């Protein structure tokens, strides 16, 4: 199949899209909304944060709900990894007509970031509908989409839908980084159960402006790889009354300053090239012109400087490394014997750990400061974005949100797609959920998502999964 960057029809379809962004969204009612709301409420109100909650409680309750709604118990698989009683996962299987064709997998994580009631305006573990929004921890990241996945399976069964391909759902724990990672556990222990020809995950979202108007919807075609490095300076130390010119804290501080002032060069893969190529037409003006220029010439400094004013664009154009943790010294009256910093990097897919490590050594330029990799990653290319993959998402998106362009995107954060892609299961981020410019409190206070956005995403994903499940090859 041709790469998405070579499909001229998609580029042509985006022409004039900006004039249509105010078009009304898909408003046809979807069946079963009360049952969906009840399931979403139940999932959100079970605390699945690491400090005070349990993913297992969510999966067990959801499996029981699906079973009572008529989903065969034999097709519901609960897993609780040994030694991790709160990191339960659920895999549901909806058999297709042709077992020779690879399945469609709906992937989601059910763990959420910790939330303290004292810090929130509302109870973080109560689903509250107010002023057109759902409020609760995890409602945007990503229990609304999890509930849509489970709801879709129940709706397929209720309507007697017989897909060509088997449809699977894997809801796992640990994506937020504290629980055991369930996606990796399933890859390592039950790869057969989650094997698929395509997996759909979080990561692609619609963007709203400050007035709530839809700007675009992103299709996550790639995501950055997380790498961590330790910068460390050591010294014999001594009494603080006798300072010496070689000081571990000063050496580390100089190294961190160099890293902080360094920009990795612009680097394009299909995902971020496709994003800037297509968004140039939507954004327009000087910013749009800079997008066009940087795609044509990644070394265009003027274009890079203009786009770097946006932290999102800056990160999407290149690998980034930033200091996130710092420690040093051992006593208030002693010269430091050791100073250490953690550098967190978000790396363009396909770049090996050794390359980033070598570049940090070059930038630090101090033999007294060592640069150590926390974990070595085997480079793997992102899943290919062909017209067969992108086409159904674009077609259904255009039917529901006329005039709102769907654009390829490289996420600057990371999801469980990293694990599945590395295991040979091509995984893409697509949700149909539109977010506000402030990020809707994801990982922060008073997390929320628009009610209308959730209901439209429910319609979108229900149809999109069907489209992939009925593809013949």
Please tell me about this protein's structure.
Strand 8 (206-208) and strand 9 (214-223) form a beta hairpin. This protein is α/β, with parallel strands linked by helices and 473 residues long. Helix 8 (270-283) packs antiparallel against helix 9. Strands 1-2-6-3-7-17 form a six-stranded mixed beta sheet. Residues 1-24 have low confidence and may be disordered. It is globular and about 80 Å long. The protein is built from 15 helices and 19 strands.
Keywords:
single chain, 473 residues, alpha/beta, 6-stranded mixed β-sheet, 4-stranded mixed β-sheet, globular, disordered N terminus
> Helix tally?
15
Mean pLDDT over all positions: 92
- What Rg do the Cα atoms give? 24 Å
Measured by DSSP, the beta-strand proportion falls in: 15-25%
Structural class: alpha/beta
- The best one-word shape is globular
Distance between the termini: 12 Å
Q: What can be said about the biggest beta sheet?
A: 6 strands, mixed
**Low-confidence parts, pLDDT < 50 over ≥5 residues?**
1-24
**Strands, count:** 19
Largest sheet, order of strands side by side?
1-2-6-3-7-17
Q: How much helicity do the residues have?
A: 25-40%
List the helices and strands and how they pair.
Elements: H1 8-14, H2 33-45, H3 55-68, E1 76-79, E2 89-94, E3 104-109, E4 128-130, E5 133-135, H4 139-159, E6 167-172, H5 182-189, H6 191-194, E7 198-201, E8 206-208, E9 214-223, E10 225-234, E11 238-239, H7 248-260, H8 270-283, H9 285-296, H10 301-307, H11 311-317, E12 320-328, E13 334-335, E14 338-347, H12 353-364, E15 369-373, H13 387-400, E16 406-411, H14 417-422, E17 427-429, E18 434-435, E19 448-450, H15 451-469
Parallel strand pairs: 3-6, 3-7, 7-17, 8-18, 9-16
Antiparallel strand pairs: 1-2, 2-6, 4-5, 5-19, 8-9, 10-14, 10-15, 11-13, 12-14
Helix pairs in contact: 2-4, 4-15, 8-9, 9-10, 13-15
């Amino acid at each position: 199949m041709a790469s998405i960057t070579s499909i001229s029809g998609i580029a042509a379809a985006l022409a004039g899209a900006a004039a249509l962004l105010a078009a009304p969204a898909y408003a046809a009612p979807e069946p079963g909304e009360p049952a969906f709301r009840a399931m979403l409420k139940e999932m959100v109100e079970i605390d699945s944060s690491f400090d005070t909650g349990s993913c297992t409680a969510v999966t067990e309750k959801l499996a029981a709900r699906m079973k009572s709604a008529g989903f065969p118990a034999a097709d519901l698989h609960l897993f609780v990894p040994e030694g991790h009683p709160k990191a339960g996962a659920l895999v549901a299987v909806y058999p297709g007509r042709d077992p020779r064709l690879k399945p469609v997998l709906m992937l989601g994580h059910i763990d959420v970031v910790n939330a303290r009631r004292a810090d929130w305006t509302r109870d973080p573990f109560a689903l509250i509908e107010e002023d057109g929004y759902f409020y609760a921890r995890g409602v945007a990241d990503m229990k609304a989409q999890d509930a849509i996945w489970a709801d879709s399976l129940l709706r397929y069964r209720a309507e007697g839908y017989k897909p060509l391909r088997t449809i699977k759902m894997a809801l796992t724990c640990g994506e937020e980084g504290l629980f055991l990672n369930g996606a990796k556990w399933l890859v390592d222990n039950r790869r057969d159960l989650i094997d698929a020809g395509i997996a759909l995950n979080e990561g692609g979202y619609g963007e709203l402006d400050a007035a709530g108007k839809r700007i675009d919807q992103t299709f996550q075609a790639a995501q950055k790889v997380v790498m961590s490095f330790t910068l460390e300076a050591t010294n014999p130390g001594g009494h603080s009354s006798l300072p010496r010119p070689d000081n571990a804290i000063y050496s580390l501080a100089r190294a961190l300053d160099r890293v902080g002032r360094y920009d990795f060069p612009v680097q394009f893969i299909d995902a971020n090239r496709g994003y800037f190529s297509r968004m140039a037409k939507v954004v327009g003006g000087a910013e749009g012109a800079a997008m066009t220029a940087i795609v044509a010439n990644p070394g265009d400094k003027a274009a890079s400087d203009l786009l770097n004013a946006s932290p999102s664009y800056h990160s999407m154009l290149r690998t980034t490394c930033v200091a996130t943790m710092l420690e040093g010294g051992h006593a208030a009256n002693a010269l430091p014997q050791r100073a250490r910093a953690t550098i967190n990097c978000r790396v363009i897919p396909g770049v090996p750990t050794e390359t980033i490590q070598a570049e940090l050594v070059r930038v630090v330029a101090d033999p007294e400061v060592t640069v150590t990799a926390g974990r070595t990653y085997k480079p793997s290319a992102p899943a290919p974005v062909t017209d067969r993959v992108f086409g159904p998402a674009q077609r259904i998106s255009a039917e529901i949100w006329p005039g709102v362009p769907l654009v390829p995107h490289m996420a600057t954060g990371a999801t469980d797609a990293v694990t599945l892609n590395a295991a040979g299961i091509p995984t893409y981020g697509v949700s149909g959920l539109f977010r506000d410019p402030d990020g809707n409190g994801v990982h922060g206070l008073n997390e929320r998502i628009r009610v209308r956005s959730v209901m439209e995403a429910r319609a979108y994903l229900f149809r999109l999964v069907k489209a992939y499940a009925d593809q013949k090859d």
